[in-house]
Amino acid sequence: MPFSNRVSTWALLTIAGISIWRRISRRRSIQEKLHACCKKGSFLMQWYTLLTIAMLLFVVGSNIEYFKEYATHAAATTDQTLRDIYDDEGQAQLLEDKLN
C-alpha cells in the first residue's frame, strides 16, 4: 500500500497527539520536569519542535514515495492505462480527443 493512503490518517493522529501534548506541557510543573530531565535537549520535547519534525517527516516521506513510485512511470504507460480504462467504459474516442 502506498504511503499516501496512510498519510492523512497519520497526520491527523500526529496533530491530535501534539495538540494534547501542548495542552499538558503548558503546566509549569511539566516544563520544570522536562528541563530537569532533559537539560539542553528539553527543546526537543516542546510541541512546536515535535510538530515541525513530524511535518518534515511527512513531506520527506511523500517526496520519497513520489520519486520512487510515480516519477519513473513512462507517459506511454500512463496513456495506455487510460485508454484501457476508457475502452472498458466505451469512451475511447473521448480519451483520444482529450489526448490530442
Write the layout of secondary structure elements.
Blueprint: H1 4-25, H2 28-38, H3 47-70, H4 75-88, H5 92-99
Helix pairs in contact: 1-3, 4-5
Describe this structure in words.
The chain is mainly α and 100 residues long. It contains 5 helices and no strands. Helix 1 (4-25) runs antiparallel to helix 3 and helix 4 (75-88) runs antiparallel to helix 5 (92-99). The longest helix has 24 residues, at 47-70.
Short description:
By secondary structure, this protein is mostly helical. The chain has helices at residues 4-25, 28-38, 47-70, 75-88, 92-99.
Keywords, please?
100 residues, rod-shaped, 79% helix, mainly alpha, 5 helices, 0% strand, single chain
Sequence of secondary-structure elements:
HHHHH
Radius of gyration: 23 Å
Low-confidence runs: none
Would you count the extended β strands for me? 0
Structural class designation: mainly alpha
Q: Report the β-strand fraction as a percent range.
A: under 5%
The termini sit apart by: 33 Å
Determine the oligomeric state from the structure: single chain
Q: What do the pLDDT scores average to?
A: 80
DSSP helix fraction: over 70%
Structure annotation, total helices: 5
